[in-house]
Fold this sequence. Notes:
Strand content: 5-15%
Distance between the termini: 29 Å
Helix content: 25-40%
Shape: globular
CATH superfamily: Glycosidases
Low-confidence stretches: 474-480
Largest sheet: 8 strands, parallel, barrel
Radius of gyration: 21 Å
Structural class: alpha/beta
CATH topology: TIM Barrel
Strand order of the largest sheet: 1-2-3-4-5-7-9-12
Amino acid sequence: MTTARFPEGFLWGGATAANQIEGAYADGGKGLSIQDVTPQGIMFDRVAGPTADNLKLEGVDFYHRYAEDIALLAEMGFKVFRFSIAWSRIFPLGDEAEPNEEGLAFYDRVLDELEKHGIEPLITLSHYETPLHLAEKYDGWRSRDLIGFFERYARTCFERYGDRVKYWLTFNEINSVLHIPFGSGGINTPKSELPVNDLYQAIHHELVASARVTRVAHEINPELQIGCMVISMPIYPLTPNPDDAVAVMKADHANLMFSDVHTRGEYPGYAKRFFRENGIELDITEQDVEDLKHTVDFVSFSYYMSMCESGDPEVKANAAGNIMMGIPNPHLEASEWGWQIDPQGLRIVLNQFWDRWQKPLFIVENGLGAKDQLVEVDGVKTVEDDYRIAYLNDHLDQVAEAIEDGVELLGYTTWGPIDLVSASTAQLSKRYGFIYVDRNDDGSGTLERYKKKSFDWYAEVIRTRGANIVPMGAKELVSA
Length: 480
């Protein structure tokens, strides 16, 4: 294959989150976020306050090294860089009337560097980073008050950066709140004690807030492109039994409801049935109904794995890894953390999403977490991560196939182009990057940066628009 497989103008890049890379958790007037009290990761219980074993407090020191890191991304040829703004850098408590200028100025400097290198910013407003004060005083998104606080925060960002940033995401992996209410929704009440009605009321508040700030963004600058962001999870029937297919349909509904509301502006019929049958009565105001009508411009998503479902309760089992549990697929291999590797699932979900919503799509997270080993080759420290190259090659091959299928795709940002602290496990040994960061799970290390083998490979992918991607050779489905 010697010809480009991706279109001109395709946005190649990588994605990060403030709480996983920035560090400097108390610098520049920043307040505490929920991440500062979850040293073991978002899937685990919080602690009383920041502790020395929380690697996120220092991250990989992007706060002080952003210019160096952005230069490395530019060397790979990045067209776009997805990062999040830490809400508690802008509003340290979350409910103040006025923003923190020192926090705003930091992101001005980051944008300056991106502009210098010709890299388009893609900003996530809320990436598992609810200010801790909002969790403790209001129980997070369980409270309707957070709609107004989030609108104030988003408006501040749009007004400050709206002439420099075209692409925005409201909430990261918003459907994850079903599984991690504290990490995703800042809900301080333990999940085991949270009434299902209150969980869906919190979800409603987030959906309304997302729609409202979409309207605000378009009022401030009609050129702004606002997207939702969800976990994508292709689900296969474990067997041909129709009961398994119905179980898949129901599991899909639970995940797709979020994007259905974001793209269609109202709750779908299957959600209303679920609410009726489970005694869920939401407080939905007339203003909520109007707000929800402001739909997103594009749909973005993360993709790491697929799963199976069964209608037989006796065969249901939890898959290791990720925050959306399911039944392992016996036909797939898994990563070191139990995340099943399914490149074709990415093509499937791209087609599913495009057929369902007819909105431009954006893959904003995809990658392989692995235990990399730093070695010396010809006197240069590097990582021989051929396994990562193979993983990304096969996934990008399937992305190219989806584009051939007619899917409209804005871009692709790998997760963690520079090693960062894992959200799910709070480890640094779970590495995703093209750039190795010398920091270990015990906090030791120099924080020096080293290019992995995949660094040059991804640079060539970008330079040639995918001409160096080797086709998987998977059999095409042939219709009868």
